[in-house]
Amino acid sequence: MADEKPGSASEPRQPIGIFRKSIPGQGRDVAIDMGSSTTLVYVRGKGIVLQEPSVIAIDKASGDVVAFGKEAAQMLERVPDTIEVIRPLRRGTVADFDTTERMLKHFLFKAIGKRPLAKPRVITTVSYGSSQVEKRAVLQAVQQAGTREAYLIEEPLAAAMGAHLPVDEATGSMVINIGGGRAEIAVLALGGVVNATSTSEAGDAWDEAIKDYLRREYLLEVGGPTAEKLKKQWGFACDPPPGAKTEITGIHTVTGLPKKVEITAQDITKALSHPLWTLIHMASRVFERTSPQLASDIIENGIVMTGGGAMLKNLDKLLSQELALPVRVADRPIECAARGAGKALTQTASLSQLALYRA
């Protein structure tokens, strides 16, 4: 069941208007979109310089890091008992502080070099509706990773900025940002979130839905990487092509022996139906709570989808049909939040008007 969070936050925001323009020689400006599935790093003047899975592999006996990112992700469900493969962020929040810090430090070094002239100024995305404790954990992890200044920006706002929506104007914009751990639906105007909600029924939950479907319908147990591959290659939110099919191998849940089955794109559509209908319902509720003036802007300009989940085939078509609104996928949707956070660092004149804060 989706853990919906209402648009009216119980905790007051703490706007920050103290950003300064970068001074040559005092370190780079860096934006990090730290997600449950993927971490992206944007360096001012260079763009996206790193896109890696948010995964770390650790030797249990020594505590030493065996691998980060892509290399660690390849070890998922394939390692001996002596190695633990960890995804330190779950549902958009820090689940393991120590490994998050180590992973961030590695990614920062990889992005800007191990011996920069000065520590970077960093802005990091944070899930909408995160508690002060969760915000503080993210901020502390970024600070401990070795930064000069560390700030937070709500992910739907960053994603909307990266999608080039006019969030600093009075015009209403609506974004559906779908990551691995969370999906966020937000209406934005005048530099902030006006109305929003979030749910954990996002990319990782879609993978689990596929695994559950195969277990129920085919008595087949598959791993997370297989489910993710099926989602990306054969997943359709609606109208799957009738002849699309593939063969996969898993473990028969009764005999415990290897088993091959033929899976169709229609199977994946059925598997994803429940979490997608949750997303549709929540988007509908956000729109219903939106004021008539902002709603009219959205009716005219449509909804923009960002995040890796936006790339699910025909998802824009399904949302448009069910919400009776224009829906489009942003250019390079997985990069939007990182690019938007990077854009915030450059807009020194208007930062005090944006919904930026530090925990």
Q: How would you describe this structure in keywords?
A:
34% helix; single chain; 359 residues; 10 helices; 5-stranded mixed beta sheet; 6-stranded mixed beta sheet; alpha+beta
Q: What would you note in describing this structure?
A:
A 6-stranded mixed β-sheet has the order 3-2-1-9-10-19, sandwiched between helices. A 5-stranded mixed β-sheet has the order 13-12-11-17-18, with helices on both faces. Helix 4 packs across helix 10 (336-346), helix 5 (203-218) packs across helix 6 (224-234) and helix 5 (203-218) packs across helix 7 (265-288). By secondary structure, the protein is of the alpha+beta class. The chain has 10 helices and 19 strands. It has helices at residues 69-73, 97-112, 132-144, 155-162, 203-218, 224-234, 265-288, 292-301, 315-323, 336-346, and strands at residues 29-34, 38-43, 47-53, 56-59, 65-68, 83-86, 89-90, 93-94, 121-126, 149-154, 173-178, 183-189, 192-199, 220-221, 245-252, 258-264, 303-306, 327-329, 356-357. The protein is flat. Mean pLDDT is 86; it is low at 4-26 and 351-355.
